[in-house]
User: Fold these one by one.
Assistant:
Number 1:
Amino acid sequence: MPTRANWIPYALIAPSVVFLGALFIVPLVQTIWLSFSSDDGTLLGNYARMAGDLNFSVAIRNTFMLTLVVVPLQVALAIGMALMISKVGKGRDLILWVFTIPLGISDLAAGLAWLAILQNSGYLNSALYGLGLIQGQTGWLSQETPVTLFIGIVLAEVWRATAIVLVIVIAGLQLIPKEFSEAAEIFGAKPWTRFCKITLPLLKPSLQSALILRTVLAFEVFAVVYALGGTNFPVLAGEAYNWQNINQNYGVAAAYAVLIMAISIAATVFYLRVLRVRPEQLP
Amino acid sequence: MKQDMLRTAAIAVAMIGGLSAARAQETVFYSTQLRPIEEATKVRDVLLKGIAGKVTYVVDEPPAFAVRMKAETQAGKRTVSVVGALHGELQPHVPDDLQPVDDLAAKVASLGIPENLMTLGKLGTDKQQYIPWMQATYIMVANKQALPFLPQGADVNALTYDQLLQWGKTIAEKTGQRRLGFPAGPTGLLPRFFQGYFYPSFTGGVVTPFKSADAEKGWETMKALWAVSNPNSTNYNFMNEPLLAGEVWVAWDHVARVKDALDAQPDQFVTFPAPAGPKGRGYMPVVAGLAIPKDAPNRAGAVAVIEHLTKPEVQVQTAAEVGFFPVVKAELPTNLRPGVKLLANAVAATQGAKDAVVSLLPVGLGAKGGEFNKVYNDTFQRIVLRNEPVKTVLEDQAKVLDGLMKQTNAPCWSPDKASQGACPVN
Amino acid sequence: MTSVTATPIVKPSGISVPGARRLLLWTGIIAVLAWVLLPIYFVALGAFGGRLGVFRWPKSIWPSDLSAASMLQFLNIEGVFGALMNSFIAAGFTVLFSVLLGAPAGYALARYSFKGQTAFRLLVLLTRAFPLAILALPLTVSFIRLGLYDTAFGVSLIHTVLALPFAVLVTQSLFMGIPREYEEAAWVFGCTRFQAFLRVVMPLALPGLAATAIFAFVISWNEVFAASILTVRERTLTAYLLKVLSESPLHYRFAGGFILIIPSVLFIFAVRRYLFAVWGIASK
């Protein structure tokens, strides 16, 4: 029941708004401004250069493909992991800790780890060679093997960033009253039915948070992608980075950044609509 | 709760402010060179020893360097007193972020820094903008296992592109692996290969003959070379690792980026100059310079650092410790580490080659240096990786290049013929 | 206790889980454990394998000729200790600020419906939706003007910006899960809103706040970009090492990668008990 004291929520969010305004919005506005002021004096000059670049359409395609594959995989895997943990008695703390370790691992270390596995002289090839499945070093990450390169990047991303989803899902799962499920069991509902009819709907707020965060982050991915794929797998954030740092054109970089932001906002609004959480659905 | 927070914040700010005030007299030396851990440690422990006063050596990648230089200028507060960076990295910061160092140029005049290097240090202005610090270049490195496959009669020290291609083909046929390698990764120096090696060798120029018939032929050779190069080349930023892993047997790269391989296994590798094409043996020197930012907080300290680092004995030490070569007149000692010796030999062979075509570093591109590189990178991407028709791509990219030249009004530099006004793309 | 949902399990469960399903469960868990740990094990092998160990082919998955040389050289680099201190200062302030700013906002989003709610959510998310690296120049300029440039405290402010979306989202779903009837009951017993919050909601929310703190700490610890662009001398450990690391020989990179993993893993370990000890209180 929404309360009458209407100033309270505003007072609660005011500190973060002021904080973000000073530290984030100001430079953001400057950068958006920059994206609309190009060398040739036209309003959309930087955007035209961005769209005309040879990597633009490839980067869009790659980023979307990666997001569409990685995010659902991570959510499914996180739910699976959370359900498994919930059934373990002894040792649960330890298992949970191991499951959440990738949270603490930087992009650099994650890229290194997966490069050590997937490169020509890596552990995967060593294992396959030991088993007699390949004759010598085999490349998985080159421009000539786009499918395995994509799979490699997906694996690394799923490994690196599933833990965030897991923590959010666990936080959500532990809030679901067990009586719901027990009641359903008494009425003879099968485990799968209980999961679909009770757990999943009640998990919706958490899933919404997890999906939004992961999707937004997925559109920004590039460190691990560049570690594994080099120039073979351009993604949007990587292109923004290249335009700023390699080509030294801050305007086009700003245009890329604005595009990424627009896509992320669209995705967020989409999730907020589709997974609407009504107060009365809450326990 | 909020008051607590504010108080903590205030204390923190006061504490930190006090700290930086206490350090006002140190000299911050900010560099894009000698970044890797072992080298930065040597700079701190060896090369900067003996300077009066505290010198703090800080390194950053070139992009961060560019941002910081601009930001400190825009905000009107400088923390850095002396910077060390490549010619091309200093270029965009003239005239906004650097102060002329003509006084220092006079001081180091007796050290025998070659005239052409000092001229480069003016960055196209009439004042000295940086003092040359160290030099390097690009070389070829081959695993000794590759030597038996050299084509009949070929001498590694006088290799041609055709022989290199043949070599790569033989290796691929005999070992079943494509073992030529290029640093074509996101931060690899492949654009420099095109500007300093490939174009001068095949066309005798860099900008003017960009889409000439000679260039077309060259790109056909490049496609053939790529077909016998390791497909992982687009992941390589530094050739050290593929060389050490044995993934690549013959590689081209900057000396600093193959040094680790040579240091780790000096007996396993040979070094030699880059190949020659129909127009000669293109090669590009690399110059790093020392400059003083505008409003440097400690100019005296900066001058001390520059004077120290250009002393002949420190220059020799620099070569011995980190493998960058002197800009001043100095004899390298004979007892260099084996790895550094390999580098020095190849550099000497390159500079002494009879058919050498020296390609100078671009001057006058200002902030457009990055986009200049992009022209060559994109051409490579489209012709070699995406297999687009050579002629069309060269026509397209020539337009971009021409636009850049006109926009910056940069005159031609060697080996292109001198021009009045913007360098033409014919 | 055969429920599929994550019911709070206080006593050892699984007694009534049939053998075949139990086997399946443990196979699954072991598979996931291996999936998480193997890549870290490989980084450790690289870190201790010495200069040429990283290039051996075919590689053995067992450690051979271990050497701690590259690890030791790392710890001997001048300035590592100061950088470590900066890392802790930055991470500490980040934890403090993101909880102090994020929790109230999360509570507001969970308990009230107000105009501008969606706008606020979007604002918070924006910080994650925009590649921060592109803001480098304007950010640095304003930090120099504010006098926050080259301080660990300044770095923590940007890290807070990055951690805030997590803080807000996690605390929001947390408060949504705590039935508002509890609070209302407390009001009935004469508590003010604030007291009700402190005595009833806070204890239930603590584990979730710990999660927020973990996120904030880890984000700050691993963040390189802001930490290196906004500092010259006062680098955090990650920025100090990673900047020189990305171009160092491979065995150093493994060593550095490994060294940087350890603190955050330990931190997660340290708060793990706290994080999950209160498991289930909320679902009575």
Number 2:
Amino acid sequence: MNSRFDQAAARNGTTRRDLVVGTALISGALLVGCSPADLMSAGAKTEVGAFGPFIRIAADGAVTVVSKHIEFGQGSHASLAAIVAEELDADWSRVSVEQSPANSKLYANTLMGVQGTGGSTAIANSWMQLRKAGAAARAMFTGAAAAAWKVPEAEITVKDGVVSHVASGKSAGFGALIQGAAAITPPAEPRLKSPEAFTLIGTDRVRRKDSLAKSTGQARYTQDVNLEGMLTAVVAHAPRFGAKVSGFDAAEARKVAGVVDVIQIPTGVAVVAKSTWAAIQGRNALKVTWDESKAEGRGSAELEAQYTDWAAGKGALPDKLKWESFESRGDAAAAGEGEVFEATFDFPFLAHASMEPMNCVAQVGGKGGTKLTFASQSQTIDQINTARIVGALPGSIQIETLFAGGSFGRRANFQSDFVTECVQIAKKVGKGTPVKLVWTREDDMAAGYFRPLTHHRVRVRLDKDGFPAAWTHRVVTQSLMKGSPLAPSGFDATTVEGAMGSPYLKATPAVDGQVLMPENGVPVLWWRSVGATHTAYVMEHTLDHLAKKAGRDPVAYRLALFEKAGAARHIAVLKLAAEKAGWGKPAPAGVTRGVAVHECFGSVVAQIAEVRLVDGNPKVGRVVTAIDCGTAISPDQIAAQMEGGTCFGLSAALHDEMIIKAGAVDRKNFDAYPVLRHSEAPKVETYILPSTNPPSGAGEPGVPVIAPAVANAVLAATGTGAFRLPMIRA
Amino acid sequence: MATSLEINGRTVQVEAAPDTPLLWVLREEVGLTGAKFGCGIGQCGACTVLANGAPVRSCSLPVSALSGMKITTIEGLGGTQPLQAAWVKLDVPQCGYCQTGQIMSAAALLASNPRPSDAEIDAAMEGNICRCGAYQRIHAAIQEAAQATGQATGQATAKSRA
């Protein structure tokens, strides 16, 4: 191993210390006194200017904010820039955003310790970091002006990128003062504005910076990369999860005009060609035989039946599989006189199905080292996984992060699945030749990394006043974290978050919540809003069944439980949504309202959906949304996330269902896997609770609330609940 | 065997095999990457371009079928077209990947029906998937563009959403 790293070091010009660090990292050892970011940035070479890693200011005064986070629709590029611009008092119209290189030391997500975007943390983790960066740069300009004009620094003001001293009548733009400012040592703890002094944050001036590029075809995605001498690869993948190549015949594939090579890689057989169409044609002509001896043989139906049995206490558990308690108090099994609600809930596997199928461009073996050009959601993990294949230091792996055509969690996984597939091909092609891996829609759908198929079993006994006295909850689902470096020793909280810690459980005297995390061969992953994709549905739909049994209004019933649990933010958003929706007032003819409230990623969202039944199926019209996400940076983009998140959640409520049959994906394209379309989109109104708390998430919290709100409207209209998603099965 | 196409007002001879889908010819031979690859079977609309003014899914149309036709891609709209202006004004795009196809479908709609009703917008846009769920703003931007165009030409404004 060492000789491999010595060679790598020689190529990359790294130091002996970097080498030790990198070796330790890759072999899984820990070095005392080194942070993970230090370890993983070993070998990195990133130039940092006078204003630090997040800000560059040009001679003409234009400000560039460097975003460590990918932009995949969530709008954080503009909001991150606005945080800097606010503290810097920059001219917002002259602020642009640039994507940072991969460097886990300079650009770590402060809540993750490595560079990456997820968990709706982009704004939350950057908030203080970027405020300080902006304020420090501002102080450098005021210091430079004070020195140049020989006036007291305290008398200097900055507005829209112009530094002024009123008494002397002097003023200058950032550009004119840049040399003096750059020479000043930035203060370590610069003075930050108080929220009342914000002039940009929280206003409708904080708008996207990429709308024009994305409306003219000029925005650059991985699919659009076209480098000199680039080849395109399409891979024949195993039909069943866990199958391996046993042999292949490439004779016909090689005859296809434009096909350059056919290469076996760990995940299949790659056809490398001069164009995407040639690569696809080559793959069509390829004959591969598969060793399925270790492949998964079960499907969705078998897994669901098994999970249902286990949750009901039927059948023995396999070795080492055991129930883990996530919340427990009192005796939930004790008998009582109140009414009992009992139900099971079933959720299918779900594909992320981003509009841009997974893809990557890699160059390996050239003079410049290894370079990846693609939409990386977790740069550090992608660097580590790439480094293992090419034998280099993680930090030396260059990544140019592009816009992503959606992700919804799919692009971040511990295996860097599509990235390493591309790197394996590029390594075999060698010589630094750029290789673009293109997955077709079918490849993307069949690759797995789904929201896991999940089963819940709930039994709630009410007290004499109609409130929950005892709550028994069983969840059966695959762990998302198992086998990862972040795997917990006990249960995986991502499987139960949203049930665990729910104010409804908090308000219940006796609780017995347990989770079972069986394994199977289908790779699973976080899917926009993660555990809440199923827990919010179960908790919120159960609540309306309980309210019905108790003979109470669903909003009043929730408010009473939130009161018992001390959930003040839930109360505030629910009251706001109820008021704006006209809850309690008659709905339009044929319309029924449904409510749901859920907290995730630090934000609380309440929604009231207006639903009509058309041919027995729910059609959603107006959706009133109230969110508490702390300080709102861009109200317009928060609204956009509520609109989009609602559509994403509604798609899963009505249509999305990945079916596995005998270990193979049965639905590989949008003809078989219907998703929400234009005519079904609701009209979402968003109301943001005023707050000066630090900002929390907006990208995911808008997703999980709509499904139970719709189910609750249907329950109110028909008296029948919905215990399986999707509601409309293809 | 070369195929002759008129793309954004320019005559282009393309060398790709006749069965090559128009999408790959546009993206990899002509160098116009605004039309996107999403599904390859004409189900998602990300590849939408206009052929003689009608919206077509370029991922599943062999280039030979388009010989002599006038092809318009997003690059041919010019960037300040009323739909594009409305898209920017309302910050419609999120990830943005589907938006060029959305705009091309909307352009075909407004060209044939300058004042579409809500139901007509729904019908015309049903073939374009947006997984980010920007549908509400897409709908509003089409109305906005129709209104702006209508005002410019003295027509009545678009029917508003009920």
Number 3:
Amino acid sequence: MSNTFLIIIFALVGGGLFLAFLRLIIGEKTTDRAVALDTTTLITTGFLVLVAFLQGRSMLLDVALVYSVLSFLGVLAIARYLDGGLK
Amino acid sequence: MSFLDILAHVFTGLGALVLFASGLGVFRMPDVFNKMHAGTKATTLGSILFLLGIGLFEPTWMPKLLLVVLFIVLTNPVSSHALARAAHNDASEKPDNLIIDDLADNKGGDK
Amino acid sequence: MKRKPAVVSTTVVLFGIWLSLTLSTDIQEIVLGFVVSLITAVATHGALTGNLFRLLTPAKFLATIGYVFFFLGQMVKANIDVFFRIFRPVIPIKPGIVKAKLTLKSERAKAILANSITLTPGTITIDIIKDEIFVHWVFLPAGDVHAETQIMVDSFAGRLEKIFE
């Protein structure tokens, strides 16, 4: 991976992460925040895999896997709560 | 540069671009359901391309990355459905720009 | 034993997941993984994967492969659509929720249909109530929206019917 390519990749993924995180802070409505949280966690998973590749540490792949599982469960819990609990 | 290397660059670059588009979409779209269009479709394909691109750079990681990709493809739409239902059921969360809304008519008919 | 195929297919899937998680060629780990997969499959068969060998007739296998490629093509189209929508100065939207009839019977087929519609151009599934599916359009199609939605849903449901009957 050349240096220029790496900078472009970091700028794109970091920019997406920043914009989604901004929406998570601004919000407006609770469900907007939940959607933004979902997007943020998925982009972070991609970021973790990129960092794992750059540092050559395969352990971070397990972190990414568990992180995506936990984010799925977290978003489901938020959606259930907004829907008024388990019916 | 070998063919595999070029393919890996293309996959990773496109994946990063789509991930950026998903962040921008979630930031710019006006209401919950339209945010979901960007937040679900773009993150799914973006993650697939990005993770497979990294997998092509480092082929020994491919099986584990495929597992992450499979998990994302299976679970991402599910969390989006759960959120969409919650957003539609709550009157204060529901956007008011819908031109037609069969689901609200359906609920009104039940009562 | 009637449930044998379900146990075997669950073991195969679990063992595949074990192998891709550990990424190890050590004989001890592989044997341990196989034993653990077998015990888990006997305890939970049916609940996790069901009987995958039902899908292994040649016609259904071909239909599954065809569906996967159809779905991937639709997903790429969906992303191009989203991409060109959000980079406009004013985002063109005309949202609405439209219902359509479902002919599929199996619950698993309905779940796959809902997930597929969410990941394809311009539409996400909001809810399924009995045999009606509710779809959100980011830009309502011109003409009769109910007929257009029904055509879109049927293009997926027809392919899934071949797989699940």
Number 4:
Amino acid sequence: MRAVKLSKQVLSGELPLNILHEINFEVAAGESLAIVGASGSGKSTLLGLLAGLDVPSSGSVWLAGADLFALDEDGRARLRGELAGFVFQSFQLLPALTALENVMLPLELRGASDARQRAGISLEQVGLSARAHHLPKHLSGGEQQRVALARAFVSQPKILFADEPTGNLDAATGAQVIDLMLELNRVQGTTLILVTHDELLSKRCGKQLRLEAGRMVD
Amino acid sequence: MSIFRLSINLLRRDWRAGEWRVLLLALVLAVGSLATVGLFADRVRQALWQQATSLLGADMRITSTRELPPFYREAAEARGLQAVESRTFPSMVAYREQVLLAEIQAVEAGYPLRGKIEIDDGNGGRVRSALSLQPSTSKGEGVVERGTVWADERLMRRLDLRVGEEVSLGAQRFVVAARIVKDIDQTIGFASFAPRVLMNEADLAATGLIQEGSRISYRLMVAGEAAQVVALRGQWLPRLSGNERLEDVTDARPEIRTALERAEHFLGLAALTAAILAGVAMALTARRYVARHLDGCAVMRCMGAQQGQLLRLFLYQFVLVGLLAVLAGSLLGYVTQAILIESIATMREADLPQPGMLPVLKAGASGFALLIGFAFLPLLQLRRVSPLRVLRREMGSPTVSGWLIYGLAILVLAILFLWQAGTLQLGLTVLGGLLSGLLVFGVLAWLMLQGLARHANLFGARHALNNLARHGRSTAVQVVALSLGGMALLLLTLVRGDLLQSWQGKLPADTPNRFVVNIQPDQRQAVLDFVVAQQLPSPQLLPMVKGRLLAINERAINGESYADTRAQGLVEREFNLSYADRMPQWNELVSGRWWSQGENGQLSVEEGIAKTLNIHLGDELTYDVAGSRFSARVTSLRKVQWDSMQVNFFVIGTPGLLQDYPSSYLTSFHLPPDKVRAGDELVRAFPNLLVIDTGAAIAQVRNIIEQVSQTVSVVFLFTLLSGVVVLYAALLSTQDERVHQVAILRTLGADSAYLRRLHLGEFAVLGLLSGLFAAASAALLGWVLAYYILEIPYQSNSMVWLSGMLGGVVLVMLAGWLNTRRLVEMSPMRILRGE
């Protein structure tokens, strides 16, 4: 993944507000990158741009050789479907779906015929086979995040985007989830882009990118 | 796996979570109510058609004073239609020393082709002739046997005759084999008061009654496939000569037709009310569905779902739910209609054919239209969800133009209304009224909420009022939705009873049931004296002049000037004209003005016939009366209530225009059952008079009203259920927001007593406003139904207002409390986790 002069500006009233200013970096396949910074520093905005969830004011992002912003909205969605997995701070499980069904969803969207079987294996990898048929509201926060991890890894993504994956968890559960994520990352050789304000966690990644008021500081 | 299978899986999962229940229920109710009314109206129409054809004894017939040319019968038989002929003539019936003038009808085997003659042959009371409502398959079944006659009640009564005794007709003696209990085949509108005798055509020659110069009415009756009858009509019409008269069911009494039309419009609009309520419930549910699926869609977008995929994902679910609802609704409609027919004695006995599929298809199509109009567009928003929402929860929902959403819903409603209401004016009036009502109520609710919030301290419910006012727009929507539900409840309980009572009141017990025609000018006083002597109220005699319409604005017209067969029939026979200084009180002026005393040369035309014949205010009409012509201008159009059973005229002129032409008089009065003999005596005293018994027609109109009353109760039950669904959906629409709010307030230290007070306060205000608007709209809709459809005066019932507001407060508070009572006792964490 490569970001080139990536900038994002929004209008705040009449005045332009720089959220991100000319961000440049490169992450090789299988590497891990932690984006750190204080609240409001632009971390989530950057992650959104890198995953093609939002469009920049200027600059470009190259993912697996494709210029993300040369594609249209559906083109970016297709690329995400093929390459990317996501883990969010608020888990983002679909409330009407059981743990297993949530994990099946990305496979079903791609039309995979063995979704149930693969989702079962993925749940087993995160140690939640016993909870496969529970609805999210009947799972603890840590369990929900493990379901989210199973969902992210089930399609064997080339790149995983994680937005504050431990933000809603206590320290011990957070540590377990991180161990699991890094382990899956290592086993599957996935590139990891992680947003966090947890310094300890960021240190466990191969690279760090620190943001302050929308600028890279080191 | 295909998107279709994924849709089904998601549908199944959402179904399990209860997301679709309200929408499905609403749609089932909408389709169910429309199908019930459609199917029921279809069968009522069939029943009335059967009743009308049974009055004729055939599908169509020609009557003539001369022998009919063979062409008519040949043409009918060539089309595969059944045909029978009869001859009717006046003759004396002799029994012992008495003689009585009767109307003798000699009939062929196969008579009648439609309907049943009920007879009593003296063995075991009532016997029905074996003739079915379908054309009889084996000819001669049930016909009068040779050597016998059937005589009607009046003949038996006047001659004191019994079944099995002999009477003389001309040179022959006949055994009276049966008494006619219920007759058919009377000239529509002109059932002579002379007693009737039925005999076999084969016996006629031997009586020697038919001779040169005898006054005979020849009649050819046909029945069979409807399309062939219509085609035959077209073939017969141009061949009709002046003394031949064609009749079919389209000539059936206008009073019955009017009652049926009113009934259909009334029921149609009642069903539409249910459909609209269902639409509102669907819109509310769809809104909630969208709000609850935004996150899921954003996640799927992250996982690579494209807009088209998402669209198909939801489209399939919608179509599936729609199909399921349409099927269930149609079934519900079919069953309800069948139960209805079973529960109405007259319809159960009519042995009606099964209803057609068309009403079901129409209801299904309307259901889908509602689904698209009210629920689908909001759903389109889901496909446009930004995937960025997964990172930024605060992002709102993508907007689809409000104009587009509401525009589509209004368009769908407009089409449905026009389809159901039948007339553009009525459809637009009701739709316009409804939309402006909703808008006005919405704005009023918003303004009242802001006003109440400003003076919140005065009411001691500061938090509740402020809370409602802060969400002004969604609260206003909720109030409007709740008031629609409340309106349905009020309509069902209070307004319906008032309306039906007033409608039934239109035909009071003393509604005229006898028409007396052909009163000569010199008999006027004598007839009036006779009626008064019978201790009956003195009736009003109205003059009648026969005239043929020759030209409109000096342009000559005849049957060929019109494409419409009714119009053709009207201009090809003589009109009954009348003259008067004052407009009959049961008529209503629609346009122009009624003449004042002394004005002359003016005509007033009934609006329906004016439309049929393309006559406008200001047109000059030329009539031929007894060989001389006159022309006059149309200065007013009148509305005539045909189902009032009063004497009515299509055209009334100023007295100066018509009073010098030869005229006869006619009148109507009510003959109570215990004075039936007075009718016989009137005819005996004035043999030239024609006394028409309209009791059967009144009974039929009453019958329709009764059938409709029972149907309306069922249709309004659908409206009521839809109303409850709307109430539920309206409360549910703010439920998620309320849950969130409770969690935050609890976290900030609010105790359950405070939360309970807050909620009950909010629900009380919502209930009060909704009840107020519900009463207003129920009163308004009641007035519209009364004024435009049933054409009866409507008095607003003050109970509607009281029950509306009181009921609104109690009901909404109760429902709201039930919905939120668990919330206020739960810990904020459990609430947020959705347990």
